[in-house]
Design goal:
Radius of gyration: 26 Å
Distance between the termini: 73 Å
Strand content: over 45%
Helix content: under 10%
Largest sheet: 16 strands, antiparallel, barrel
Structural class: mainly beta
Strand order of the largest sheet: 4-5-6-7-8-9-10-11-12-13-14-17-18-19-20-21
Number of strands: 21
Number of helices: 3
Length: about 425
Amino acid sequence: MKKTLTCIVFLVCSIAFTQESDISELKIQGLKRTKESFIRRLVKVKPETAYDSLRIVTDIERLKRLPGIANATYTVIKNADQNYSVSYNIEENFTIIPGLNIATDNNGEFAFRVSLFEFNLLGRNQILGGFYQRDVFDSYGGYWEAPYLFTNKFGFGINYKNLVSQEPVFFENDNTVDYKFDSKSLEVNLLYEFNFHNRAEIGINISNETYDFIQGDLPEGIPTQLNADKIAYRGEYEYNNLKIDYQYVSGYRSLLDFRFVTGGDEFLKNFFIGRNDFEYFKRVGEKGNWANRLRLGYASNDDSPFAPFAVDNQLNIRGAGNTIDRGTASIVLNTEYRHTLYEKGWFVIQSNTFIDTGTWREPGGDLSGLADGSTLRFYPGLGIRFIHKRIFNAVFRLDYGYGIGDKATNGITFGIGQYF
């Protein structure tokens, strides 16, 4: 009997001393515009739950990805009752951001885009804004996106765009014909975050597209005007394992975007298009950052001059020019070394040495065309960045790309935000 009682006492004491410590309180400090209720709904650490250091670290990385937050740290204090007081210390971004993208080449082509966005609308990291673009013709658009509108995982987005531009269309024997491209589209998306690393979007895009002939030697059988009412069903999937420390990024990200477009006609046919960006970032010493993006694209291989993938300054090859080629599949590699030249307080100057290279499958061609070198573009270059560490995406970049090979060009690309 005495032996049994001793065992029971020992078991009770063991349970008492091995009981997990709890989080007695969670403080959110440093907020000015961001709503504390939004942060508390988003983070996984809650008061009166078991202490988990990994969950705290994950919360901090999640907060640092938000547009409204420049940086986040945490402190943990163990209380006399063996429970923990946790504090999240937040440094907010300024989030009403103007934007400007400019691109030129040695053929005198010039295009620009200006925008104004609020990235922390209502203190809940919703995005609201619009843009105006001049690329021979005038374009504009507006966006609203609320990633956590319904729950801490489920959100909504909507955008409208009226894009008008002069689009070169390429035929055999280096014959180029210019069309006026006009697209009016409304897109609605549902957003869902599975966990810290994985999120997805599904949506529908309703658009009207027209092509009107402007100039050039139009081949026989190619119309002067095309019109199509289209419906596109789209999806996006992202795996994100990036760690952000102001201007420095490390880790890996994969972003898959695909859509099936219906409602086409003889030349603007129904088609499938998919693209995956693989990004890899690595810190190099104290001041260096190696950044890489491999972009793979594949679309229905229709033998049409209106192919969906384009070689363009702002999209993939800095210095190449404004839409200089088209294809139905592509492989593009952008690699660059970013080095902090000067840093004091909120201000950073960063140099950039890059190589942009890519190859395309001609419409109706074979995939072997991606490897035979006939469409290869190779553009090394230099750039500079001026960075404000406490304004979201306040990276003013200027890059000069110099083409090597046949038909190569060179030119300047200016924009806000890192190129990738």
